[in-house]
């Protein structure tokens, strides 16, 4: 029955095993090359390794887009624990290790061999819950008619304690040298391998020992690649009358070629669609754009590595090839970092691999914004050659230029927005610019601009907000319905509707953001003045005490100095507030004087015009008029074309 306590113990054991595992991450052209590299780093054989593939390699197409293998490699956990146990036993910690590490249940084993004129045994202790060696079985295996001496007491002790992987002498036998096993050493012509072929001993003969094999190899000139594990395995369980490999050349390890490690997806087919919260695919979010910011690492060249030479078993050097270097794929708007290997974005934009070059494009161009492109979010300028269809949005850090029209969508830019064919928002369109908005017409939409809104034809039933001016320039330059606000100026040909019934509201001459900031500053300053009064009162109290007593205790002297410092800071902060308040008041006074509404044609009844805080409701048609603020009233003056601002066309655009 599996109990919770047993599970806990098993998990603790597994945790201990995992802690002992050392992993290395290697890169190579082939899987075999990676394993060979890892074997050197972990100081073991490739046959002892296990691995996980991090990134599968690819040979590419005619050498292009070649990708190396990347794998995580670690030694077989069972072998690691065996090594740890052996080391602990050698250090006198056998009991502790046996209690701590139990990987598998392995029975004890023994080997009995005769070397020279002596009898030797090797006893391996059991692991986990494995059965120990039976002393009687060990004694029976060592008994032979030609024995002259056998220490059975020692055998019983060794069966219990083991021999630490070594052969221990336990007796003698009547050695007949003519019956000894015969060994022949064969060296391959290319010096890549050495084998031994051993004939079995006859009655009274001795077997081949580890020392004898190593001496024979040394006599033949073998100096490298001797496989002690295979030699020990042969001595334990000899394989007679067939070649047995005991030494292999140390193969050279070629260096890995340089390659580019990309920090963005170079294969567009692997770009994933965005999913909604319920797991459905949102086809408006196609994620086709990979935005980057200036200074962002885009790719890094992994330098080639030097090859590691090998040796034949006779010690002859085997040359290894060094990895090949490659050029850096530096393209448009990319630069090389100080390390000479990392490629950085020079500007904000869209990163892509064009041919074999990394490019960052400041302008992202599409034929239209629709189901094929999805929503566009871009850290640069977006150029749309066609329409922005209903339900699709554009957000850009730079400018947005749209050659077609805009429907029910949201357009947001860190720069200017230019819409050649106008806006038909159907009350569900929002356009926000950190600079200016230029359009042929605006209908049933909400528009906000930090500078200007410039329209050729008309603004109809829309909420338009400009922190500087709203200007309508064409032959049909009309504002019909909705709310239009500008801090400085609104100019059009006609304002309102000749048939009436449509409310048209225009406001100029004040800055709501500045007014809001002014209120905040005045509140902050009022609180600061109160705090300053309290500090001055504390200073005055302590100074009076000091005059009376001629000195203050250390604590109060420190408090007085702290109050002096606080007062200095508060006074400085108050001066900053006062300066900003004066600047805002000056700006508001300026707007009071410059704020105006110009109509070169007709202003129809039903139009409401607010200049600063005063309102003028137009009751009858008024032609060629300018509305402005004077002495607390909105006044009307004759329209003067020279007073209408001209901001020209936006810079850097093909559309006007």
| Global outline | elongated
* Number of helical stretches of at least 4 residues: 10
Number of strands: 43
Low-confidence region ranges = 94-102, 280-284
Helix content, binned percent: 25-40%
- Main sheet record: 13 strands, mixed
Q: How much beta, percentage-wise?
A: 25-35%
Protein structure class:
alpha/beta
Radius of gyration: 45 Å
Distance between the termini: 82 Å
* Average pLDDT taken over every residue: 84
Question: What would you say this structure looks like, in words?
Answer:
- By secondary structure, this protein is of the alpha/beta class.
- It has ten helices and 43 strands.
- The protein is elongated.
Brief synopsis:
The protein is of the alpha/beta class and 656 residues long. The chain is built from ten helices and 43 strands.
Attribute tags:
656 residues; alpha/beta; 13-stranded mixed sheet; eleven-stranded mixed sheet; 10 helices; 43 strands; 31% strand
